[in-house]
Amino acid sequence: MQGYFITLFTQQNRKHEGIPLAKWIIEEAKKLGIGGATLFSGKEGFGHDGRFHSDNYFDLEDPPLQVAMALTPEECDKLIHRIEESQVRIFYTKSPIEFGFTANNSSAN
Asked: How far apart are CA 27 and CA 3, in angstroms?
């Protein structure tokens, strides 16, 4: 299947509608019928504003998070539209990919 790999970048303490933004994105993806998402926690980084974000014992500065998904073009359009209509400003990357399963049996481990 052809589609996109999308990664949305945020921080642990950033919220939307009273919940962490990364969790909100995942919940919205589920509502749209998207089949899966993965949340990655980063050790450290800096954003477009130059602010440092870290997750270490001595310098807990709003750790970076990434929400990643493999989507069909239609799913990608729906998700981006949903985020935009909620007036959330978030940096993302979007790359064309081919994706699928290696086995036909959905119950295979």
From this structure: 21
